[in-house]
Write a structure and sequence with these properties.
Immunoglobulin-like, 13 helices, four-stranded mixed sheet, 22% strand, alpha+beta, 394 residues, Glutaredoxin, five-stranded mixed sheet, 15 strands
Length: 394
């Protein structure tokens, strides 16, 4: 009986030890990230997390796995939080903040906005984006949406008269557009000033950090405002540093612009330094760029006013766009200046746009043709008018 009792006691004790051991194992949490997700794709479809600029998939692969039974898992550890892109079967499917926590992801076949839970920084980012969306929804800005829709319709129909009319209407809305843009910037700037070391702040600012959207004083202030984990992000190191260097170190007023030779609308090529004019406005543009094409009516006026004695010429450098669409836009807008094509694959900037470190479209340079010295870089309309008047007189 005693032996039997001891055997039962030993069995009970062993069971207790097993339960305690299992319980302890369950309590040990992975100190990195654990991602569980759902996606309606065939088995063995590859899914990747990629370090890159938002929407792009050419960068370093952080992690990869295969989808099984419409589910996938990632497990790893990151040294710092950053915004990463999701690639499924080599196609972009959204972005989120990868941090060391338990995260769930639900991918939608027809959307670039996956449902993310468990990433606090993604939640914070989405809250700021919701505030920005509320600005765009304000009734007083409905006219902007209406005119933008009309421009899209006119382009789709190839209706030049309607396009000219709607572009003129868009110009008339400039004060309202600027007010809306400033309201959005204020939301972003307030968050950044309160959270200068947050990786979220970097992406809240995002592509607003370009010349044209921010003035030079703002670019300088905010580039140097970020600290800590914010400046470790891929976007800060790749995009913001590039924009800052272009604005304050590369191709500045007084420096020499790169010469180039590119094909024109005919079968011939043209070299910038051989254009017969005292001053040249080099204008990087694309057919899809509404501000580019909205500027053309005024550029026509300037060319008509100053080009008569061979003093002034415009060289439009079509880039980030297929040649056929550029040619269609040239015909629709009836732009009489020299057009050249800087074409690359996948609607990317061409080699000349890269040499000029073009941060956005339109980007313009007023250049002295004899020396190729830059006189103005991305001048505002009033600044360009004033400079040309000073050079040529009224």
């Amino acid at each position: 009986m005693k032996i039997q009792f001891n055997l039962k006691l030993l069995q009970i004790l062993s069971l207790i030890v097993l339960i305690i051991s299992t319980s302890c194992k369950e309590d040990v949490k992975h100190d990195g990230y654990y991602i569980s997700g759902t996606a309606n794709y065939p088995d063995n479809t590859e899914i990747k997390l990629i370090e890159n600029l938002p929407g792009m998939l050419t960068g370093k692969v952080i992690d990869s796995t295969l989808i099984k039974n419409n589910q996938f898992e990632f497990k790893g550890k990151v040294n710092q939080v950053d915004y990463v892109n999701i690639s499924v079967d080599s196609k972009y499917k959204g972005s989120f903040f990868l941090e060391n926590s338990e995260i769930s992801i639900a991918l939608n076949d027809d959307s670039f906005t996956p449902i993310i839970n468990g990433s606090k920084m993604t939640d914070t980012y989405n809250e700021i984006q919701a505030k920005i969306s509320e600005v765009y929804k304000q009734k007083k800005y409905d006219t902007i949406k209406k005119v933008s829709a009309q421009i899209g319709k006119a382009k789709k129909l190839g209706d030049k008269k309607l396009l000219d009319k709607t572009l003129a209407n868009l110009n008339n809305l400039t004060p309202l557009i600027e007010e809306q843009a400033q309201s959005v910037k204020n939301i972003k700037f307030d968050f950044i000033k309160a959270n200068p070391s947050s990786p979220v702040a970097i992406h809240v600012l995002g592509y607003t950090f370009i010349e044209g959207s921010m003035n030079r004083d703002e670019l300088k202030e905010y580039y140097h405002l970020f600290t800590g984990d914010a400046i470790k992000t891929f976007f800060y190191k790749e995009h913001m540093t590039s924009v800052y260097k272009n604005a304050f170190e590369n191709l500045q007023v007084g420096t020499i612009a790169p010469d180039f030779t590119l094909p024109t609308t005919t079968t011939t090529n043209i070299t910038l330094s051989k254009v017969k004019a005292k001053y040249i406005l080099v204008d990087f543009w694309a057919s899809w760029c509404v501000p580019c094409r909205a500027s053309f009516p005024h550029l026509k006026e300037l060319r008509k006013k100053y080009a008569k004695n061979g003093d002034f010429e415009i060289v439009g450098v079509g880039t980030a766009d297929p040649k056929d669409k550029l040619l269609k836009a040239i015909k629709e807008d009836n732009t009489p200046w020299i057009h050249v094509f800087d074409i690359a694959e996948n609607h990317q900037y061409g080699e000349i746009a890269k040499k000029y470190s073009v941060p956005h479209l339109p980007t313009t340079f007023l250049i002295e043709s004899k020396t190729l010295k830059i006189i103005l870089r991305d001048p505002r309309k009033e600044e360009l008018d004033s400079k040309l008047e000073a050079l040529f007189g009224n």
